[in-house]
Structures are given as structure tokens and as C-alpha cells.
């Protein structure tokens, strides 16, 4: 390790001198060089841009990824410069659960087939969400992050350097002022007497030394002023680039809104298609009411009060009877044992002993097969 003690000592001295100047400025005991109004306005505008860009960036991250653990994981992957693993969206996960549940409930049942349909559309919605997240991250989040981690760091570095150059300039101004005051004091009050020429020589020597000190301080002041002006110009050019940043962020904002509009339009389209699909299926709550009530027998006690009259429901279950039924919804047969149905057509239905109560045997001409009760309106 190359340890340069002289440079270390010099840097420590400069740091200490700047710290003293900064403290005296805060206490009001030292003069401070003010930046020109245009540069001050540029700095205020840049600070405002940085603060709001940071807030918008953070909140957009929360919008796109509400899970804080997932955000922390993505942050570490970015810092380690590794590819972020693909993550299943909530819609895709829900859709897969529905498909798995349909396998257990039976894909041929009304509930199972509806689960399959809804699950497939949930997966589509999840895919649309994934595409929206990727597009938004590339077109909106990445430019904001590049500004905060790239351009703004460069601006902050040059601003700190400008502040150091300003402190050096004010230190040189204070040094020139003190040297001139000492020179004037030495010239106004010479430390000699007419009877002692040696003191006169010493006084003349001191005056010459102070004059040299003034010249040296003024030379350092000119150098400090030049460095300050140069750094102020560099900082000004960088701060004026904030206008270009606003233009770039405006374009990214338009792309973000377009991505949102596309995503919500896809979701709306998928939901409309899903509603059309579900309209082919019966409302199980409303349709199940008729079969249950028609299959319910009167209480034996109430039947006993009417001698010679047998309960009608009991007669229909003991002896299979044919009834007319109106088809409420289209139904596609899943196998050869079932009968396909068309909405609003009339068919003949009846039951057989040992048959599932959710199904009936339907006849249409010479065609016969099982039909689901929930798709029918039994006619008297």
C-alpha cells in the first residue's frame, strides 16, 4: 500500500480549513460567496426533480409489486447483477388452483366445468399482468432508476465539488482581507523610534513581508476564483440537462400509460368473454330450487289426513313418469351416455331407480341420453 504521509497531512489541513470556514459562515462571523440567481434556481429545480422522481419511483414499485419481500429480493438480484427469476402472478396461481380443483370435483359436473373455464381465464389475466409488469419495468422504472443512480449521482458529485471550491474561494478572500489589514496597520503604526534606526529597519522589513503576503494571498485568490468559476460552469451545464431529463421522463410516462391502457383493455376483453362463457351455464342457486322442491315429498303426517289420497311425489318416485322439460341453456354432451341440448327446446325427461338425483334421462325423438337437471325447467 502506497502511504503518502505528506498528501494525507495536506488533505487533512484543507479539510480542517474548510470546516472552520463553514462553521464561521453558519455562525455569521465569516462572509459567504453567494451563487448567482440562475444557478440557485437550477439547483432548486434539480432538488425538486430528484425528490419527486424518487417518490414516484418508489410508489410505482409498490404498485407493480405490493409484496415487500419480493421487492427486497429483486433489489438484491439487481445489486448482484443477476437475472431476476420468473415469478408466477397471483392470477396464474389462482387459475391453476381452479384447474386442479376441477380435476377432483369432476370436469363433467357443472361446478367442475365452470372452474375449468374460470381458471383458464384467470391464467390469461395473470399472463396479461405479467406482460404489463415487464413492460412497465423496462419503459418506466428503468429510466427513473437510471436518473437516480446515474445522472443524479454525477450532479451531486459536481455540486459537492462546487461547494468545496466556494469554501476555498472564501478562505482566500478572508486571507487577503487579513493580510491587507495587517499591512495597513504596520504602515500606520511603525514600530521604531528616531533614535533607534535598528527598529526602523525591522519595521520596514515587516512591512515588506506583509506586502509579499498580500501579493501571495491575491495570487491564491485569483486561482481559487478561476477554479470556482470553472466548476460553477460545469455544474450549471449539468443542471440545465434536467430539462432533457423531464422530456425523457415525459416520454416514459406516456409509455407507462399506454401499457396500463393495454393491460386494462385486455382484462376487460377477457372478462367479457368469460361472462359470455358463464352465461351458457345455469345459475345453480336459482335452478336447483325447482328440482329440489319438485322432488320433495309432502310430510307423511299431512298425507294421512287425506284418506284415500296418495302423495303425488311418492307415486312419481315409485313409478317412473315422463314429463316435459324446457332447456334453459345449451349443453354439450361429454360422452356417448349424455344428450346434447339446445336452449329453449322441449324434451321428455324421466328418472330411473338408482340414478344420480342431479341427472335425468332425456329423450328427443329417437335420441336418448343423460341430461343435467340444472339445465332444465320441469313443466307440469
TrEMBL record:
Signal sequence annotation: none
Keywords for this protein: Coiled coil, SH3 domain
Organism of this sequence: Oncorhynchus mykiss (Rainbow trout)
Gene3D superfamilies reported for this sequence: Arfaptin homology (AH) domain/BAR domain (1.20.1270.60), SH3 Domains (2.30.30.40)
A Pfam family: BAR
Family: Belongs to the endophilin family.
GO CC, one annotated term: cytoplasm
Domain SH3: 320-380
GO biological process annotation, one example: membrane organization
Protein name: SH3-domain GRB2-like endophilin B2b
Amino acid at each position: 500500500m502506497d502511504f503518502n504521509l505528506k498528501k494525507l497531512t495536506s488533505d487533512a489541513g484543507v479539510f480542517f480549513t474548510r470546516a472552520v470556514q463553514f462553521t464561521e459562515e453558519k455562525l455569521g462571523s465569516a462572509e459567504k460567496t453567494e451563487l448567482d440567481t440562475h444557478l440557485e434556481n437550477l439547483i432548486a429545480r434539480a432538488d425538486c426533480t430528484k425528490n419527486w422522481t424518487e417518490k414516484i419511483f418508489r410508489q410505482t414499485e409498490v404498485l407493480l409489486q405490493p409484496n415487500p419481500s419480493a421487492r427486497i429480493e429483486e433489489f438484491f438480484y439487481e445489486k448482484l447483477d443477476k437475472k431476476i427469476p420468473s415469478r408466477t402472478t397471483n392470477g396464474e396461481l389462482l387459475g391453476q388452483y381452479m384447474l386442479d380443483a376441477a380435476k377432483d370435483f369432476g370436469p363433467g359436473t357443472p361446478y367442475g366445468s365452470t372452474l375449468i373455464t374460470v381458471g383458464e381465464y384467470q391464467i390469461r389475466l395473470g399472463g396479461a399482468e405479467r406482460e404489463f409488469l415487464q413492460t412497465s419495468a423496462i419503459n418506466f422504472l428503468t429510466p427513473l432508476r437510471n436518473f437516480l443512480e446515474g445522472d443524479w449521482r454525477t450532479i451531486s458529485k459536481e455540486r459537492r465539488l462546487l461547494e468545496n471550491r466556494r469554501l476555498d474561494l472564501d478562505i482566500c478572500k478572508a486571507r487577503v482581507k487579513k493580510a491587507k489589514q495587517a499591512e495597513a496597520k504596520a504602515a500606520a503604526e511603525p514600530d521604531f523610534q528616531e533614535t533607534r534606526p535598528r527598529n526602523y529597519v525591522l519595521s520596514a522589513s515587516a512591512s515588506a513581508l506583509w506586502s509579499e503576503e498580500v501579493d501571495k494571498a491575491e495570487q491564491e485568490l485569483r486561482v481559487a476564483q478561476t477554479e470556482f468559476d470553472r466548476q460553477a460552469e460545469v455544474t450549471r451545464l449539468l443542471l440545465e440537462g434536467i430539462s432533457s431529463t423531464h422530456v425523457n421522463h415525459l416520454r416514459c410516462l406516456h409509455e407507462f400509460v399506454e401499457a396500463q391502457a393495454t393491460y386494462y383493455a385486455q382484462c376487460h376483453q377477457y372478462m367479457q368473454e368469460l361472462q359470455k362463457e358463464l352465461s351458457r351455464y345455469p345459475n345453480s342457486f336459482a335452478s336447483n330450487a325447482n328440482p329440489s322442491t319438485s322432488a320433495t315429498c309432502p310430510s307423511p303426517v299431512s298425507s294421512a289426513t287425506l284418506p284415500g289420497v296418495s302423495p303425488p311425489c311418492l307415486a312419481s318416485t315409485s313409478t317412473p313418469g315422463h314429463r316435459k322439460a324446457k332447456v334453459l341453456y345449451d349443453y354439450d354432451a361429454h360422452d356417448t351416455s349424455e344428450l346434447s341440448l339446445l336452449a329453449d327446446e322441449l324434451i321428455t325427461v324421466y328418472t330411473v331407480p338408482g340414478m344420480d338425483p342431479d341427472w335425468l334421462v332425456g329423450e328427443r325423438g329417437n335420441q336418448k341420453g343423460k341430461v343435467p337437471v340444472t339445465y332444465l325447467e320441469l313443466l307440469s
